[in-house]
Design goal:
16 helices; alpha+beta; binds oxalic acid; nine-stranded mixed β-sheet; Phosphoenolpyruvate Carboxykinase, domain 1; binds manganese (II) ion
Length: 628
């Protein structure tokens, strides 16, 4: 059948609401695809698309596993492109907190007029020679009051099959949508084909990448990149950037957080959420295998949490996603046995190495294979000096594969949250764990998060960057307003969950990590949950409440950790840290910063002086030499 001249799956698009059809037709006229395919989300469709991509050489079947495939991206299209990710609002101040000294770091603003001009220069004819896939998807359980419906148009079959893993895709979504509005996502790899021309295996247009968001009209426009964070529009674009803006208007929070259930030896179960910057171990913590007897951790989500205060003043969380888009390097049977148990079925790997037996390998997975094909498709040997897998290579796996998926993972009302964690990679100065003194102090701690840069975006090296709430690349609106919103949510909660900061990455004099991490992180969670229940004393320090030196259960650890070094709050470090935070607040957030945040910073300054005698002295700070 035809709509405006286009064949749609060769059939009548029954059941597609007319406002959706009009929108599809509008973009088809601009992008000029060869044909249109509206996804029904069925297994048959999935198999058909994968078969087609295998024939084209876009996907390589991994014969060692069940229904698993490998994709290799263009080497220029391997991570989120933060510098080309923009938010478009009528007024700049609604996107970015500082109006005079624009730095772009807390949201890149573009005017609607300039964005329209860019769209007009990029999209006409961009899908020539390609199929336009239309993907109706639900973020959150289909039909839940807390879920949101989006539709993504894309000319990438890879994006279509990955979206089917990461979100709930199909006709049932359109049935629930009816004639309601939806989030409109348009994506093109930006590589039109002339008649008779063959497509590159990974078409993209790195010089022209644009990832744009229009919170005022609920639209996402993505051009030139097929990399997941840029092209799977339900994830960062909808669930975080537009999501945070919708959440502000509606009185909830959209956060870059995992959600997990922790069952304690007494059988009590508590849910936690935790925000860490990209590539800092959210997936590992989300499905941690506890090294303390009697504990069990179950996962609701590993990347995004939508947090709603319910009518009783309890904070509740849903995971809007349906899959894991996890970082492969470093994942192994020790660091994350449950991820390893999840990913060798129904998974699409991107940019990992291919082993001779039709399997995959990455750095930190286990013993090196003698030889393999690296992520660029080139022969690789164990003696090679380049990595076999890209540091930001990924597995895209359905949540249902996870053996420790929480029974309430699809509860339409969400799970109750008992504690909130922030964290980052901090080689020195920041204790293994500390607890905020109040909700307001916790919001300040979130605002002051810093972390070493990782491979998830285009940054190079190990510089320590501010990443407030681990949301720096994902804020959909003015960061000062975001902080005000967090402060106001605290007032809606009857018992606001306690807020903690954790740092698994502190290093000792020799540059080695002081804490074993992974399954032993349960020892830290145990302390936090006992603190939440008011069952433990703690030591008041400049940063907040720190465990007493025997506060954490460290029995049974192979090597006794240096708890003194792990929990130290060196005065000189914290003086410099507080001064640097003040500078950051002033230059990056300026007048938008709520006065409560200045108050919290003044209090930190005071506590640093009051507690200055207490600390293990500065040698710990000075002796640290960054490694690598
Ligand atoms: C991700 C990221 O892919 O944060 O989750 O980059
Ligand atoms: Mn993430």
């Amino acid at each position: 059948m035809v709509a405006g001249g286009w064949t749609i799956n060769g059939v009548e698009p029954n059941g597609v609401p007319s406002h959706v059809m009009e929108w599809i037709q509008h973009w088809a006229e601009i992008c000029q695809p060869t044909d249109i395919h509206i996804m029904d989300g069925s297994d048959e469709e999935d198999q058909m698309l994968k078969k087609m991509m295998v024939e084209q050489g876009v996907l390589i079947p991994l014969t060692k596993y069940q229904n698993c495939y490998l994709a290799r991206t263009d080497p220029k299209d391997v991570a989120r492109t933060e510098a080309r990710t923009v938010i478009s609002t009528k007024n700049k101040i609604d996107t970015h907190p500082v109006t005079d000294t624009y730095s772009g770091k807390l949201g890149h603003w573009i005017s609607p007029e300039d964005l329209d001009k860019k769209i007009q220069s990029l999209f006409p004819g961009c899908m020539n020679g390609r199929t336009m896939y239309v993907i109706p998807f639900s973020m959150g359980p289909v039909g839940s009051q807390l879920s949101r419906i989006g539709i993504e148009i894309t000319d990438s079959a890879y994006v279509s099959v990955c979206m089917r893993i990461m979100t709930r895709v199909g006709r049932q979504v359109l049935n629930v949508l009816g004639d309601s509005p939806f989030v409109k996502g348009v994506h093109s790899v930006g590589a039109p084909l002339k008649p008779g021309e063959h497509s590159a295996l990974w078409p993209c247009n790195p010089d022209k990448v644009l990832i744009a968001h229009k919170p005022e009209t609920s639209e996402i426009i993505s051009f030139g990149s097929g990399y997941g964070g840029n092209s799977l529009l339900g994830k960062k674009c909808l669930a975080l950037r537009l999501g945070s803006s919708i959440a502000r208007k509606e009185g909830w929070l959209a956060e870059h957080m995992l959600i997990s259930g922790v069952t304690m030896p007494n059988g009590q179960k508590k849910y936690i959420t935790a925000a860490f910057p990209s590539c800092c171990g959210k997936t590992n913590l989300a499905m941690l295998q506890p090294k303390l007897p009697g504990y069990k951790v179950t996962v609701v989500g590993d990347d995004i949490a939508w947090l709603h205060p319910d009518e009783n003043g309890q904070l509740r969380a849903i995971n809007p996603e349906n899959g894991f888009f996890g970082v492969a390097p470093g994942t192994n049977f020790q660091s994350n046995p449950y991820a390893m148990a999840s990913i060798f079925k129904d998974t699409i790997f991107s940019n990992v190495a291919l082993t001779p037996d039709g399997g995959v390998w990455w750095e930190g997975m286990g013993p090196k294979p003698k030889s393999c094909i690296d992520w660029r498709g080139k022969p690789w040997r164990a003696s090679s000096s380049t990595p076999a897998a890209h540091p930001n290579s990924r597995f895209c796996t359905p949540l249902v594969n996870c053996p420790v998926l929480d029974p309430a993972w699809e509860d339409p009302h969400g799970v109750p949250v008992s504690a909130i964690f922030f964290g980052g990679r901090r080689p020195s100065g920041v204790p293994l764990i500390y607890q905020a003194i109040s909700w307001e102090h916790g919001v300040f701690m979130g605002a002051a998060v810093k972390s070493e840069a990782t491979a998830a975006a285009e940054f190079k090296g190990k510089q320590i960057m501010h990443d407030p709430f681990s949301m720096r690349p994902f804020f959909g609106y003015n960061f000062g307003d975001y902080l005000r919103h967090w402060l106001s949510i605290g007032k809606l909660l009857k018992n606001p969950p306690p807020i903690f900061m954790v740092n698994w990455f502190r290093r000792g004099h020799d540059g080695g990590l002081l804490w074993p991490g992974f399954g032993d992180n349960i020892r830290v969670l145990e302390w936090a949950l006992n603190r939440s229940a008011g069952q433990l004393p703690a030591s008041g320090r400049c940063v907040g409440w720190v465990p007493t030196h025997d506060g954490l259960d460290i029995h049974g650890l192979e090597e006794s950790p240096d708890m003194e070094a792990l929990l130290a709050t060196p005065t000189r470090f914290w003086r410099e840290e507080a001064a640097e935070i003040r500078q950051y607040f002033k230059s990056e957030i300026g007048d938008s910063l709520p006065t409560e945040m200045w108050r919290q910073l003044d209090k930190l300054d005071k506590r640093i002086e009051v507690f200055s005698d207490y600390n293990v002295e500065e040698d710990e700070y000075h002796s640290y030499e960054p490694i690598g």
